[in-house]
Amino acid sequence: MIRWLAAVIVSLGLMGAVSAQTQTSVESGLGVVLRGLDKVNGETIDVEIPWGGTLNVFGLSVTVDDCRYPPENPTGDAYALLTITDRVSGFQTFHGWMIASAPALNALDHNRYDVWVLRCITS
Questions:
Q1: pLDDT higher than threshold 70 for residue 39
Q2: Rounded to two decimals, what is the model's pTM?
Q3: How wide is the angle at C-alpha 75 spanned by C-alphas 26 and 100, nearest 5°?
Q4: I need a surface site. Which of 50, 61, 71, 122 has the fewest CB within 10 A?
């Protein structure tokens, strides 16, 4: 039993070492480029919001807390920490990380508007 437990601990340690080697470095951007969609009339808008800034996108207020990206793929793998509030109701509809390459993974749930990350502002 002790040998089995030791083998499990050693294999978990090796898996941790392998996963630590495969992690990539990330950099923080100066802001984020988002696309907004009004689902009622089909209108889209692209906006740039600086880090720490807030901007109104249709009926939503979007605040950017951070935007990170790997240096080797700054557009496809960008992800941003956003807080989105409905301007009419004042209800916070989203708070979390939104990923450019997989917008449906952690998406805004709003009946009229949609917002997703396109990329970080890198310069």
A1: yes
A2: 0.75
A3: 90
A4: 71
